[in-house]
């Protein structure tokens, strides 16, 4: 069992690195980046060649053609004696690259979580008579993953009619899963050895709190985080409009959908169309008018999330993941609101300890499209 001790902001964090299911000594640092939906999580581990066990030395690494890594970290009750069962598994993935630096005497392995099995697999299969959830479950089991899937009722053939070009050609299985999830209003992601396909997190659930407290007597403020940067993207805050154009071959008609539909409904920054509103245009084949409008609304919702952003650092907290909702309070600014994580990077090393860096985004409540 690998037992690395680090000095860090939290108490006594510990880590374990497993290669192909067995713990290995000799690592000096690792990093895990949990991304937002629709992309693979990534990892990186650095080993000191001279500290590797004899049966898995630098020569052994140089000969490997396939390798799986699992990274564990946490704070066990007894930091001098613990197992992987007492720590949290932050990623299970397959190595993409092994790099050897003979000058520095280090070996670095990097790769992606099991999202990669779907990204790397191309298919022309259409599954016309299966529902989205049935397709997700079938793809998961075909790669040995456990499907954690919310049942759906619409057959995939219906989605071919909506966007034939997204489903007819040879595409990655991950593109297909993301396409189906978008049409269902779902999210899709991989954690460990399971594929999750279901509704996004509920904004009404208890949020993860970032708390800034000003001292009433003019003293130093306090916070439950180490660093915080808040940013507002003015291109979005001035107002945006999404335009979807579509030619429906079946109906032999063209459709244009705009959202927001009228200048007076674009409230962000109190801007009008003539006041610098950014237009986002997209051409999507074979939509009806209703489908084009729905797509414009969905794309608008995605775009305005980029308006308000935060990034912060704090000791790692197991309660925070990419499914969380984050609430910032106490700054006395428009930045005090809800955010959704983009990425969470956790790193463990002898020098830096156990650290966490988070980026998140949401749109200002003032940027909501107002009813007319």
Which features would summarize this protein structure in a list?
372 residues, alpha+beta, 15-stranded mixed beta sheet, 3-stranded mixed beta sheet, 8 helices
Describe the structure.
This protein has 372 residues and is of the alpha+beta class. The chain has 8 helices and 23 strands. The protein has helices at 58-63, 115-119, 132-142, 156-162, 164-168, 173-184, 234-237, 289-304; strands at 4-5, 14-19, 22-23, 27-35, 42-48, 68-74, 88-101, 106-113, 122-123, 146-149, 171-172, 187-191, 194-198, 208-213, 222-223, 227-232, 240-248, 253-259, 278-283, 308-314, 326-329, 338-349, 353-362. The strands form 4 sheets. The protein has a 15-stranded mixed β-sheet that branches. A hairpin with an 8-residue loop joins β1 (4-5) and β2 (14-19). The radius of gyration is 24 Å and the shape is globular. It starts with a strand and ends in a 10-residue tail after the last strand.
How do the strands and helices of this protein lay out in sequence?
Blueprint: E1 4-5, E2 14-19, E3 22-23, E4 27-35, E5 42-48, H1 58-63, E6 68-74, E7 88-101, E8 106-113, H2 115-119, E9 122-123, H3 132-142, E10 146-149, H4 156-162, H5 164-168, E11 171-172, H6 173-184, E12 187-191, E13 194-198, E14 208-213, E15 222-223, E16 227-232, H7 234-237, E17 240-248, E18 253-259, E19 278-283, H8 289-304, E20 308-314, E21 326-329, E22 338-349, E23 353-362
Parallel strand pairs: 10-13, 14-21, 17-19
Antiparallel strand pairs: 1-2, 2-3, 2-6, 4-5, 4-22, 5-8, 6-7, 7-8, 9-11, 12-13, 14-15, 16-20, 17-18, 20-23, 21-22, 22-23
Helix pairs in contact: 3-6
């Amino acid at each position: 069992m690998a037992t690395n001790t680090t000095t860090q902001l939290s108490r006594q964090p510990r880590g374990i690195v497993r290669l192909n299911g067995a713990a290995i000594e000799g690592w000096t640092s690792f990093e895990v980046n949990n991304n937002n939906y629709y992309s693979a999580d990534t990892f990186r581990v650095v080993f000191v060649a001279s500290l590797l066990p004899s049966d898995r030395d630098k020569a052994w690494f140089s000969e490997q053609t396939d390798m799986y890594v699992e990274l564990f970290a946490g704070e066990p009750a007894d930091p001098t004696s613990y197992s992987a069962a007492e720590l949290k598994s932050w990623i299970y993935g397959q190595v993409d690259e092994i790099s050897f630096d003979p000058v520095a005497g280090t070996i670095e392995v990097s790769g992606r979580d099991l999202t990669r099995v779907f990204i790397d697999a191309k298919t022309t299969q259409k599954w016309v008579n299966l529902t989205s959830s049935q397709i997700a479950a079938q793809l998961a089991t075909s790669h040995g993953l456990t499907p954690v899937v919310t049942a759906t009722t619409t057959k995939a053939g219906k989605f071919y009619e909506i966007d034939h070009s997204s489903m007819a050609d040879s595409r990655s299985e991950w593109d297909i899963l993301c396409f189906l999830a978008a049409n269902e209003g779902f999210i899709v992601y991989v954690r460990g050895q399971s594929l999750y396909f279901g509704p996004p997190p509920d904004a009404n659930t208890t949020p993860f709190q970032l708390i800034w407290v000003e001292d009433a007597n003019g003293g130093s403020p306090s916070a439950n985080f180490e660093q915080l940067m808040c940013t507002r993207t003015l291109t979005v805050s001035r107002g945006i409009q999404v335009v979807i154009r579509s030619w429906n071959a079946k109906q032999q008609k063209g459709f244009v959908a705009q959202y927001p539909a009228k200048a007076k409904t674009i409230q962000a920054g109190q801007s009008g169309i003539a006041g610098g509103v950014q237009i986002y245009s997209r051409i999507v084949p074979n939509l009806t008018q209703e489908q084009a409008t729905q797509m414009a609304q969905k794309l608008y919702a995605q775009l305005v999330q980029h308006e308000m952003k935060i990034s912060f650092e704090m000791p790692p907290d197991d309660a925070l993941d990419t499914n969380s909702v984050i609430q910032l309070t106490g700054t006395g600014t428009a930045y005090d609101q809800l955010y959704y994580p983009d990425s969470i990077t956790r790193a463990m090393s002898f020098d830096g300890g156990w650290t966490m860096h988070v980026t998140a985004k949401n749109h200002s409540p003032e940027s909501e499209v107002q009813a007319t």
